[in-house]
Amino acid sequence: MPTTPGKSRILIADDRPSSRELLRLVLERSGYDVIEAADGQQALERARTENPDLILLDLQMPGLDGYGVLAALRGETRFQNLPVLALTASAMRGDREKIMAAGFTDYLAKPAGPEIVRETVARFLRNTAETAERSA
């Protein structure tokens, strides 16, 4: 999987347009190709058709929430090792454990600053590429 900006494709799934726009701007300015989804069902469809290298997935969306999207993705072989980072405004005690137990790769607390978003995305894209190289 690619790790250089401009070659990595990132899917942002969040029902709040302002959240998607902020993340999109940060990531596009860093050179990433960004795909957006406004709800959980659209996130599943976009993941299946666009084959992102990483997904930023809001947990609280109407209809199919982030947990439901992740469960559906992890049920498909090609998405089992895909980095999926939860986006959450909830930073209560025990939330991280619940998120990680659900199968997310990690999470970002909203609102995450631009530098944290860039560093986190780059780290997980690097980790994925290194794992792919070792198994090749």
Overview of this protein structure:
The chain is of the alpha/beta class and 136 residues long. It has a single domain (9-135), classed as Response regulator (Rossmann fold), CATH 3.40.50. It has 5 helices and 5 strands, in the order E-H-E-H-E-H-E-H-E-H. The chain has a 5-stranded parallel beta sheet, sandwiched between helices. The mean pLDDT is 89.
Count all strands and give the number: 5
- CATH second-level architecture: 3-Layer(aba) Sandwich
Class from secondary-structure proportions:
alpha/beta
Weakly predicted, low-confidence segments: none
Largest sheet: 5 strands, parallel
Q: Please list the strands of the largest sheet in the order they lie side by side.
A: 2-1-3-4-5
Total number of helices: 5
What portion of residues belong to β-strands?
A: 15-25%
Give the secondary structure arrangement, pairings included:
Blueprint: E1 9-13, H1 17-29, E2 33-37, H2 40-50, E3 54-58, H3 66-74, E4 84-88, H4 95-101, E5 106-109, H5 114-135
Parallel strand pairs: 1-2, 1-3, 3-4, 4-5
Helix pairs in contact: 2-3
Summary keywords:
136 residues; globular; 5 strands; 5-stranded parallel beta sheet; Rossmann fold
Summary of the model, kept short:
The chain has 136 residues and is of the alpha/beta class. It is 46% helix and 18% strand.
